[in-house]
Amino acid sequence: MNYLIFNFTAGWKNQMKIYILADMEGVSGLRVMSQVQSDSPEYAEGRKLMIDEMNAAVDAAFAAGATEVIAADTHGSGVQLRIGEMDARAIYERPNAGRMMPSLDKSFSGVILLGHHARAGTFNGFLDHTMSSMSWFEYRLNGQVMGEIGIEAAYAGHYDVPVIMVSGDEAAAVEATELLGDVECAIVKWGIGRNVAKCLPVRRAHETIRQSITRALAAPERFKPFKPVLPATIELTLYRSDMADDLAVHPDVERVDARAVRRTITTLLDVRRF
Ligand SMILES: [Zn+2]
Prior knowledge:
The protein is an alpha/beta fold. 24% of the residues lie in helices and 29% in strands. The chain is globular, with a radius of gyration of 18 Å. Bound molecules: zinc ion. Zinc ion binds next to loops. Zinc ion is lined by residues 23, 25, 117, 148.
C-alpha cells in the first residue's frame, strides 16, 4: 500500500513503511551453530554479523525509498540488536508472546524477512528448524507443511501486508519461492548438511541484500499477501509425546495422536498459537 502524504518541506510524496523481521541463522557470514548460541564464545561474532546485516538492510530500504522502517529481532529472546549500534533512522522492537511483529498494521507496504532459515527437516538447510529446534518436529497450516517463513507470511497476511523479500541460505530462498511465488530472495550462503555453511564474504552478501531490497521496493504493490483460508487448521507434531501432553491441556487444542496436536484458528494472528 502506498499513500500520498504531504510533507511541508518535501511537498507531496509517497509514504512507504517497511517492516524488517530478522532471524539469526540465515545471517551473512554466520557459518557454524555455536555463533547463534548466546553461551558460546563464538556468539559475539554471530551477534555482530546480525547487527551489521540489519544496518545494511535498513540503509538499503531508505535508499530505495522507504519513509519509515520498523525492525525486529525474532531470534531467541530478541535481544541480539545492540540499540546503540543500530542505524538511527529505523525504530527497533522485539516480538512478544502473542505478537510476532508488534507494530505491524495495514499501513505497511511490505515485510522483509532477513537472516532466515529453512523449515525443520530440510536437506542442506543451515540450522533448519521451525520455531523450536528442541520440540517442533513438523508444523502444518491447512495441511501444508511450513516453517517460520510461512508462519510469519501468514501473520503479515492478516494485515494484507506481503512478504516482499527474504534473505538467508539457499534452502530458505527455495522454500520462500515455493510457498510465496514471486518474492525477492537474496542467497548469502549454502548449508553443508545442517550445522555448517559456506558463505559469501560479508561485503558481497550485503550488496546482494541491497540489490534485492532495491528491486522489491521499486514496486512493492506487485507482491501478494499470503492469506490462507480461514477458519484454518494448525497442526503440530512434536518430538516426544510428553511435549504434546503439555499442549493438549488447553481446551481449544485437540489431541491427534501421541505426538501431535491440532487447533482451529479464526484469525491469522493465531497462526502459531497452540
Ligand atoms: Zn528462526
